[in-house]
Specification:
Elements: E1 8-11, E2 14-17, E3 28-29, E4 36-37, H1 51-68, H2 72-84, E5 95-97, E6 100-105, E7 114-119, E8 127-131, H3 132-136, E9 143-149, E10 155-161, E11 168-174, E12 180-194, E13 200-206, E14 213-220, E15 230-233, E16 240-245, E17 251-257, E18 262-268, E19 277-278, E20 288-293, E21 296-301, E22 309-314, E23 325-328, E24 335-341, E25 345-352, E26 355-362, E27 368-371, E28 379-383, E29 392-398, E30 405-410, E31 415-421, E32 433-441, E33 447-455, E34 466-469, H4 486-490, E35 495-499, H5 509-513, H6 521-536, E36 545-550, H7 552-563, E37 570-574, H8 580-585, H9 596-599, H10 605-614, E38 627-633, H11 641-654, E39 661-666, H12 677-696, H13 703-710
Parallel strand pairs: 34-35, 34-36, 36-37, 37-38, 38-39
Antiparallel strand pairs: 1-2, 3-4, 5-6, 6-7, 7-8, 9-10, 10-11, 11-12, 12-13, 13-14, 14-15, 16-17, 17-18, 18-19, 20-21, 21-22, 22-23, 24-25, 25-26, 26-27, 28-29, 29-30, 30-31, 32-33, 33-35
Helix pairs in contact: 2-12, 6-7
Amino acid sequence: MKKKVLSTTVVGAGAVLSPPIASRKSHQVPSPNGSRDDDYYWLRDDTRKSKDVLDYLKSEDAYTAAMLAPTQTLQDKLYKELVGRIKQDDASVPVLRRGWWYYTRYETGREYPIYARRRRSMRAREQVMLDGNALAAGKDFFQIGAWAVSPNGRMLAYAEDTVGRRQYSLKVKDLQTGAMLADNVANIEPNLVWANDNRTLLYVEKDPVTLLSVRVRKHSLGSDSAKDPLVYEEQDHSYYMRLTRSKSEKYLLIVLRSTLQSEWRYTDAGDTQLKFKTAIPREANHEYQLSHLGRDFIVRTNWNAPNFRLVRAPVARIADKKAWKDVIPARDDTFLQAFEVFKNYVAVNERSGGLMKLRVRSWNGRKDYLIASAEPSYTTALVPTPNIESKKVRYIYTSLTTPRTTYEYDMALGRKTTLKVEPVFGGFDSIDYKTEYLHATASDGTLIPVSIAYRKGTKLDGGAPLYQYAYGSYGLSTEPAFIPNWVSLMDRGFVVAIAHVRGGQEMGRAWYEQGRLLNKKNTFTDFIAVTRHLVREKYAARDKVFAQGGSAGGLLMGAVANLAPEDYRGIIANVPFVDIVTTMLDESIPLTTNEFDEWGDPKDKTYYDYMLSYSPYDNVKSMAYPAMLVTTGLWDSQVPYWEAAKWVAKLRARKTDSNPLLLKINMQAGHGGKSGRFERLRETAIEYQFILNCLKRPRYSTVTDLARLRG
């Protein structure tokens, strides 16, 4: 392996460091459709112990640190600014469950939340259930993924991760005595439910290699976890699995979900045997979610309803579609996103015109109305509200310029109460900013929604820098929600934009179908079309456009870099999924088998050829690329670190420009990055520092340009 070169080349008043160069080792990646040579396959080390690999990763990280060091003052300023915008001793809106008010809060200067509760009244004495700061002491990474209190309020079960690989461990605490129990189960999902006996816990066991959720087991307090009885095992590894408890408190539920199918199983929470029944058996292309009310199940289903509908049927007849009665019928122009059931009302999140709205409807149909907004781009999102008897529903309203505001809406009286407005310090005032909702025309004529925001007074004359974000996969819509960190960009004259590209479900189910499998390239060309529209309409300068995306959005960044490098001054790709063909051929890698319906199975030549035609890693060319900052985590369980490392190594070998290419590797974290709230802001400061530094330095298109500057 070639070692990191520490020499520098003088360019004008600055210095250009020589980056680490990865050695090339021929390796054939086999497939039923032929083999491909992968010179950087050796960077994959499942053990994460190879000295050669670790040395190379550390050299990349050191190079990134050295390249960013000259602007450390700017990074520190940005970090201070980002931290100064948050309320450090903030707390969540309390939630009432079984006579206790539960909430999380932070203390000034501390990284992790404190989980607490008060009996009957928020004026009662506080009981700290868990102090994340104490639990995280001495650990490079710490995260509480889930917690659940036993029905009698005495026992607390929680799942913690101390690596970042999302392999959680079960812990149990006696809230009455404060003692930690000896019970411990490793390698589980962050998902726990109690049975009514207050001694039995259900958890989901993960496969140690693929990290898939494969088995539900029950654990009795004080018993040997190695002997925990099997409750359910899923044989089809295209399914994800989770547990939940019905809002009515009557049922425990196993939720099975693949890309295009779902299945729910239920049992009475008081059943000592915990024998689960299937609600509606799985079938091709049928997705559903259910809730319990009285003698019925309420079901959100896409059966004969591409945009989903809401139906109701007796529990005993729920599998009989002839027994289903429409509560909210299917509509071509409206996508039913989510719902919350109450005794006398149902609240639904529905999406029309690309925006998420809130509808409240009484079961007798006498009341049926939308909660309106005056802003052009916004989101109104349901918040899970305990107590099925309640006449009040909670929701969050936000936009790119309006901080998250939690409301409680009285469905009987038609009145809303503000419970909390997310505090934003540092002199922020919504009145100083403006948001717009635009449409860009895609290459096939489709209109792509775009949410943008900027500080009032920003000149929209074609000179402003642009920060453009998108995700566009799995049917996950990107909401135009307030992001406090973006204020730092808007205050520096940036226009910020969310491109609602195909692959999400902003415009309904068809929007997702047009951005997956053999339509995936629409996601990439939509993003580029949005960029060009904003430049053409003078919202942004052509040579000051920055793009950002993570995970599957990192795939988008990689594709855009290959397709339209000249359109972007810089690209930030976080934990990018860029080696799609090799990964999807290997079923030992986490998430592979779950995602054939999303990307295609490359063992099929049709999908193999299509995926290969856009795979960012396979399509790196000998050409000029934008400045790029790529981030990854050594312990990433969703997109293994080697995808980013291989991609950067290949880019270094082939790109013809002298623009910065930096790989930042978090050696103590996984897919979500650092676990502490201030540590995460440090990572954001690095990204913004990179962007602002790119704006200050010349844009070298090619090595020839650099030579011309030198000489």
